[in-house]
Amino acid sequence: MSMKINGNYSAFRSNYAEQLKTEQSLKRAERTEKSDTVQKAIASDEIPVPRDEYTSSGRSGVKPSGLYQLGQNEDGSRKIVFDDPKKSEEKCVGNTDKVDREIKKLKEKQQQLEQQIRSVTGDEQKVKELEKKLAQIESELRQKDNDTYRRQHTSFSG
Predict the structure, then answer these.
(1) How far is it, in rounded angstroms, from Cα 150 to Cα 153?
(2) How many Cα atoms within 13 Å fall on the side-chain side of residue 74?
(3) pLDDT digits (tens, 9 = 90+) for 85-131
(4) Chain segment 45-80, per-residue pLDDT in tens
(5) What pLDDT does 4 receive?
(6) Which long-range contacts (CB under 8 A, 24 or more apart) does 94-103 make?
(7) Cβ-count burial of 130 within 10 angstroms (0-12 exposed, 13-18 middle, 19+ buried)?
(8) Over the Cα atoms of the chain, what is R_g?
(9) Could you read off the pLDDT of 87-97 as tens digits, one per residue?
């Protein structure tokens, strides 16, 4: 089934376009009128212009919502710290026992290797092997026996 409609669509399109242009120009005119009246009111001091003003918390009578201050993080870089007065105080306990045990074991192993090196005589290959192990242990101790390593591997409970 087919239908044929006779009509002129180009007239409808041009009417719609003209209608749109007219509406847009009316809206623009309204906006400019509003902005003109606002500018005139401001110029004649009818409307007070709000301005930022500092009021200390002591004079305002209102308690501050929090306190911002400049602080440092673990690396020593600057950061902004916010002390929230509503936040309850938390207590954390840092525990470095695991790290301390690890370092103690390494030091004991180092002493054992030093004793073995002193006790072995004549076998240069065995001495070189023990010295190589001792160098590895000393290197590991240099990496772990410091405050930075302790801080990074501290376990916290709260």
Answers:
(1) 5
(2) 6
(3) 677 677 888 999 999 999 999 999 999 999 998 898 788 899 899 99
(4) 666 667 777 666 666 666 656 677 778 888 888 888
(5) 58
(6) 94/154, 94/155, 94/156, 95/154, 95/155, 95/156, 95/157, 96/150, 96/153, 96/154, 98/153, 98/155, 99/144, 99/149, 99/150, 99/153, 99/154, 102/144, 103/141, 103/144, 103/145
(7) buried
(8) 40
(9) 767 788 899 99
User: What is the share, in percent, of the chain residues with pLDDT greater than 70?
Assistant: 73
The 3-class secondary structure across the chain, one letter per residue, is: CCCCCCCCHHHHHHHHHHHHHHHHHHHHHHHHHHHHHHHHHHHCCCCCCCCCCCCCHHHHCCCCCCEEEEEECCCCCEEEEEECCCCCCCCCEEECHHHHHHHHHHHHHHHHHHHHHHHCCCCHHHHHHHHHHHHHHHHHHHHHCCHHHHHHCCEEEC
Dig out the tokens for 50 from the structure.
Answer: 């709000």
Residue found by looking up tokens 């045990």 in the block:
101
Q: Provide the residue count of the chain.
A: 158
